[in-house]
Specification:
single chain, mainly alpha, CysZ protein, CysZ/EI24, transmembrane, transmembrane helix
């Protein structure tokens, strides 16, 4: 079920039907990451470099260049960790667009879902951003712990991205409380699907399309779980 959902999402990723939302999602992701890069760079130049020069006066000119290179590498690493939170908030803005394309092209005979109100969607996106940001700070700290490091990235992002993207997809068809209950009922499946999203997130350049892939995959997964729920014996007896 998880692999089928992932394959279905990948098959649509570069299709003509996705072109409009593809351009919007990729463009906004790149703009957000560029803004973060310039913001972090200016912050380092404003705070860190003067502090180092005060702490160690009389540094040779080559030390400044070396420090700049080290700072750039650190910033690039930090930006890589910020892709997940950026993905979270952009997904909140475009999930309904992605879901509508998936539902229209892959499930034309079924009733379409309902788009969330804009204000509620923005509130959930901001909450999602905060949760994923906090989780990745924890993951960053765990990178310093031998035997955990890289696994922490996948476990934290697998859980958080799986949880939030699935609930976003489910809330097009269910009340918020019911969507959360369904996610908890299928927690293992949703977590494993989240690990697939985390693996996608770990691939350079391809990870810029994480909002598109994750949203489409979770729409397919929610559809599959809903079919399974309806097929249960207790539903057939009623």
């Amino acid at each position: 079920m998880i692999l089928d959902a992932a394959r279905a999402a990948l098959s649509r990723l570069f299709s003509p039907e996705f072109r409009s939302v593809f351009i919007k999602t990729l463009g906004l992701t790149l703009l957000a990451l560029a803004a973060l890069w310039f913001g972090l760079t200016n912050l380092v130049e404003w705070l860190a470099l003067p502090w180092v020069e005060t702490l160690i006066p009389g540094l040779p000119s080559w030390a400044g260049w070396l420090g700049g290179i080290i700072a750039a590498i650190a910033l690039a690493f930090g930006l890589a960790l910020l892709i997940a939170p950026v993905t979270a908030i952009i997904a909140g803005l475009f999930l309904d667009d992605v879901a509508e394309v998936v539902e229209r092209t892959d499930y034309p005979a079924e009733p379409p879902g309902r788009a969330m109100p804009a204000l509620r969607s923005m509130v959930l996106a901001i909450k999602f951003f905060g949760v994923v940001m906090s989780g990745n700070v924890v993951a960053l700290l765990l990178l310093l712990v031998p035997g955990i490091n890289i696994a922490a990235f996948f476990i934290v992002n697998g859980y958080l991205l799986g949880r939030e993207f699935f609930e976003f997809a489910a809330m097009r068809f269910r009340p918020e409380a019911e969507a959360r209950a369904l996610r908890k009922k299928h927690a293992v499946t949703v977590f494993l699907a989240g690990l697939v999203v985390a693996a996608f997130l770990a691939v350079p350049l391809l990870n810029l399309l994480t909002p598109l892939f994750a949203a489409a995959m979770m729409v397919h997964l929610h559809k599959a779980i809903s079919v399974r729920e309806v097929a249960r014996p207790e539903y057939r007896r009623t």
